[in-house]
UniProtKB/TrEMBL annotation:
The lineage of its organism: Bacteria, Pseudomonadati, Pseudomonadota, Alphaproteobacteria, Hyphomicrobiales. GO terms for cellular component: cytoplasm. Its main location: cytoplasm. This is Xylose isomerase. Belongs to the xylose isomerase family. Its EC number is 5.3.1.5. GO terms for biological process: D-xylose metabolic process.
Length: 333
């Protein structure tokens, strides 16, 4: 069955600061948020944003997190440190800005490795365009490929995972969907590249999550799974299974079949509406464990394999609903 490692978005634990740190002036520190996250039953890992969360030696951060029972799943790059990145990081028209973004990413990879992690996630949200006639698309693509290739080659022992998203902050992202991301990986041609699949991003890319995962497993490798939910219009960051329960279960079944052994990471936004982040994360973990139980029951049910092989949607739906909700109650019609 899929890994029992559960990771989460650290910034979620800044939600409702008055409940955790009465009288706090300013934002909570990394270790304040981490200590709050450590209260979550079943949470094993955190992801750290670079450079945002790395204000001291990475080895020291890893030690402090270990002292409260948490490991570092990986690092994730953020390109906000220079306002010029708004026009692109790896694809910026200014070669000096492109160089700064690439060097910042290399520094992030080095920091991740110093912290004992071997995964760096690249969400290249600043790389894209907003207007017709704004950019030469072939040039943009080449800059992107060159940048990804250089940072991936920097440390072949570190896995570099591309997280795609249709838009935001740019109107059109250069990595909007699974297929385009896989084309980029093919163009780069390095073995330590793979894909992070974010459930809400996949939904509003108009993709079926399990199908996207199957394509990734066929043409590259799945290095990260970010679970959340939404209404397929934007990156809602809702709790797991809140809207697309069946699709989430199908995704979990697919990645189990494909041998995914990484952490399940919760990229949800309890801070957007002031939810209790500890309870929210605990419910997400419990939900995924129940879903994995459904996956286990489905994998033992030969009827589902037969229904899927014949593309019998009615029978497959009946089997999945039974695995989720149980058999019909006697006397109820």
């Amino acid at each position: 069955m899929t890994s029992n490692r559960f990771a989460t978005r650290l910034n979620s634990f800044a939600s409702r600061p008055e409940a955790e740190w009465p009288g706090l002036a300013g934002k909570p520190s990394l270790m304040q948020m981490a200590a709050r996250a450590a209260k979550v039953e079943g949470l094993t890992d955190l992801d750290l944003n670079f450079p945002d969360h790395v204000g001291e030696k990475p080895t020291e951060i890893a030690r402090k997190l270990g002292d409260i029972g948490l490991s570092i799943n990986g690092f994730a790059m953020r390109y906000y440190s220079n306002p010029a990145f708004k026009l692109g990081a790896f694809t910026n028209p200014d070669p000096a800005v492109r160089r700064e973004a690439i060097d910042l990413t290399k520094a992030g990879i080095d920091a991740a490795r110093e912290a004992g992690a071997s995964l760096m996630t690249l969400w290249l949200g600043q790389d894209g365009f907003d207007y017709a006639f704004q950019a030469d698309y072939a040039t943009l693509w080449q800059h992107e490929i060159d940048g990804i290739r250089e940072v991936a080659a920097h440390d072949p022992g570190c896995q570099i995972s591309l997280e795609y998203k249709p838009n935001e902050p740019r109107s059109y992202s250069l990595m909007p969907d699974a297929a385009t991301t896989l084309l980029a990986i093919r163009d780069v041609g390095l073995a330590n590249l793979g894909v992070t699949l974010d459930f809400a991003h996949v939904l509003y890319a108009d993709e079926q999550p399990a199908f996207a995962a199957a394509l990734i497993a066929r043409h590259s490798k799945l290095l990260g799974v970010h679970l959340n939910d939404g209404y397929a219009k934007r990156d809602d960051g809702l709790m797991v299974g809140a809207v697309h329960t069946l699709q989430t279960i199908e995704l979990l079944r697919q990645i189990h079949r494909d041998g995914y052994a990484g952490a399940i990471y919760f990229d949800t936004f309890p801070d957007m509406t002031g939810l209790d982040p500890v309870r929210e994360c605990e419910v997400n973990i419990a939900t995924v464990k129940r879903m994995l139980g459904v996956v286990e029951r489905l994998e033992k049910d030969n009827r589902l394999s037969a229904a899927v092989a014949s593309q019998d949607a009615v029978t497959s739906q009946a089997i999945v609903q039974e695995a989720m909700l149980g058999r019909d109650t006697p006397g109820v019609t």
